[in-house]
Description:
- The chain has helices at 32-38, 47-60, 68-85, 92-115, 121-129, 137-158, 166-177, 180-188, 195-203, 207-211, 215-219, 221-237, 242-263, and strands at residues 2-7, 12-17.
- The chain has a two-stranded antiparallel sheet with strand order 1-2.
- Strand 1 (2-7) and strand 2 form a beta hairpin.
- It is globular and about 45 Å long.
- The chain has one domain (2-263).
- The protein is mainly alpha-helical.
Amino acid sequence: MTATIGNSGTGLSVRTTAARSSRATASPAVNKAALRGLVEPSSVRTPEELLSRLKRLEASLVGDGRVVFPAVYAAITKASVRLVADRGVDDVERSRALIVDFGRRYLQAFADHLDGAPVASHWQRHFALAAGPKPSLRAAASAINAHLSVDLAEAVFATGAGRAYAPDFATFGRSLAATTPDLVAALARHGVAAERFVKGWFLGDVLDGVAGAGTTSRLGFQVVRAEAFANAMLLRECAVSPALVRAGMRAACRNRETTLDVLVRS
C-alpha cells in the first residue's frame, strides 16, 4: 500500500492507493433485506454479538462506501470486548452494557438510513459521504466524529454511569488508543491509507502541525471522549437543561466536521 500525503496550504490532502493483494475482495451486490437484518439494533444483546454483527456487516459491504465504519468499529469493539473479558475494568457489567448501548446507536442510524426514515442529524453527513462504491477516509472520519461527539455521551447517560465510573471510562480510552495499528489495517483492507490521520486523531501528534494550532484540543480522540463523559454527567445531574446539552453536542459535532473538511481530502 502507498499513500501520498501533502499539505495544500489549507490542510492535509490525502490520496490513497493500495496493492491489489491487500484489498478485500468485492462482495456481490448487497441484499438490502439481509443488510437490514444485520443492523437491527434490538437483536444485539451482548458485546460479543455486537462484534460478530460488525464483522458480518463489513464482509457484506466490501465494495460499498459504507464499509469503512464497520471495519474500524469492529477493531475498536474487539479491543473493548477483550478488555472487559480480562476484567481490565472494575464495573464489568456496566461496561458491557455501555458497549452494547453505544453500538446500537450506530446500528439504529444505519437502520433508519436503509428504511428511508429520518436519520439522526449527526449521522447524516457520514451516510452522504459514504454513498457510492468507493470507501473513503473522510466517510470513516465523519462516522467516528458522529459516534464520539454525540452517541458516546448518550450511551454513558443511558446506562446510568456516574462520576464513579470515570476511572473505567479512562481505562477504555487508553486501551482504545493502543488500537491504532488495527484501525489502519482495517481501512487498508478497503484501499484507504489512514496511518497519518489515525495517529493524529488518536495520539494527537500531528493535528496542530497540519491544520493549525488548537486542532488537537478540538478534535483529538481523548479530548472528545472527555467531553462526552462531561456531557453525560450534565445530562445525569441536570445541572444544565438537557436540551441545551444536546444542542451543544450536535454543534460540536458540526464544528468538527468543518475541521475534518480541511484535514481530510479523500
